[in-house]
Design a protein that fits this description.
Low-confidence stretches: 16-23
Mean pLDDT: 76
Length: 153
């Protein structure tokens, strides 16, 4: 009984620091942070609570793409705020039990106001970031698959 209580206390203590500091993380300026948004409109609409289906599996979980028996093409475009374009493209091609996929995710922000050292207007700027995806998946049984995905930012 004492060992069980000690084990529970250790688990709680190990989980506490990550919980306390998780909301203080400032990563808005990190390269590639735009990947944390989502890959499809359905997931964006559900607050990033997505599942790995065949169309966006290259982004979430490439093993989900293995259940596709047809060629799939997906394109999503959204403007989360003015002068911002967020695009996702994916293509899946099945070869028997294997499915290969290619994808691209892009963020483009334009008309960003620039300021000089003395806070005077100094023109406008643009910001572009792209990520490229390549995936492969294999269907072992109707209920079991595996997959791998490579991302290049």
């Amino acid at each position: 009984m004492k060992q069980m209580i000690l084990l529970i206390m250790c688990a709680v203590m190990m989980g506490t620091p990550s919980t306390v500091w998780a909301d203080k993380k400032k990563d808005g300026g990190q390269p590639g942070n735009f990947i944390n948004l989502a890959a499809d409109a359905r997931t964006l609409g559900m607050g990033r609570a997505g599942v790995a289906d065949t169309e966006s599996g290259i982004f979430w979980n490439p093993a989900g793409s293995a259940f596709s028996s047809q060629k799939k093409l997906m394109f999503m475009h959204t403007s989360p705020f003015p002068n911002c374009n967020y695009n996702f493209f994916s293509y899946h091609h099945p070869f028997g039990r294997c499915v290969f996929g290619l994808g691209m995710l892009g963020l483009n922000v334009s008309d960003i106001d620039c300021r000089g050292y003395d806070t005077t207007p100094d023109g406008t700027a643009q910001f572009h970031q792209n990520a490229f995806f390549c995936s492969a998946s294999y269907l072992f049984t109707p209920a079991l698959s595996t997959g791998i995905s490579f991302k290049k930012i």
